[in-house]
Amino acid sequence: MDGETAYVPAGFSQELVVQWSDTDAAGHHHHTAIARFAEATEAAWMRALALPDYFGRAPRVRYEVDYLDRLFFGQSVRVTLRITHVGTSSLHFAFEVWALDDQGDPTVRAAAGKYVTVHASDATSSASPWPPLWRERLTAAADAPR
Predict the structure, then answer these.
(1) Does residue 101 form part of some domain?
(2) pLDDT tens, position by position, 79-116
(3) Number of structural domains, the chain?
(4) Residue 50, phi-psi category: left (phi > 0), alpha (psi -120 to 50), beta (remainder)
(5) Has residue 111 been placed in a domain?
(6) Are 86 and 49 in contact (CB under 8 A)?
(7) Which domain holds residue 25?
(8) I want to staple 82 with a disulfide (CB 3.0 to 4.6 A). Which of 3, 10, 13, 52 is the partner?
(9) Assign residue 132 a region: left if phi > 0, alpha if psi is -120 to 50, beta otherwise?
(10) CATH number for the domain including 78?
């Protein structure tokens, strides 16, 4: 358990529930559930930023996570996500997954990590610069107060 860390709201968060398919034979979350939670939150944020074409154009090129505590079927979690860097063609995220109590308050940090996406246009097989509108919205989201 990671009791030393306090919950700090991030750039964007959402609450999810651990589904049966998120668990493994040991009865707690499977490690891939954390990636799914982070990506679901990223998708919700990109929709909120009115960047619906982001998916399919922003593959993950790096992913790192620290698993700090277990989550169980039916448990509510809050996923917090923030943009830590907007590069020419890359986007760096940091995230946390917190277990929630019955009142919806974060109690235990179950996972923390970071990942990087890059812009991949149809015109090239390698990373390409973010379109100006995307860069503007992503930079504003990264600079938003937390």
Answers:
(1) yes
(2) 999 999 999 999 999 999 999 999 999 999 999 999 99
(3) 1
(4) left
(5) yes
(6) no
(7) 12-143
(8) 10
(9) alpha
(10) 3.10.129.10
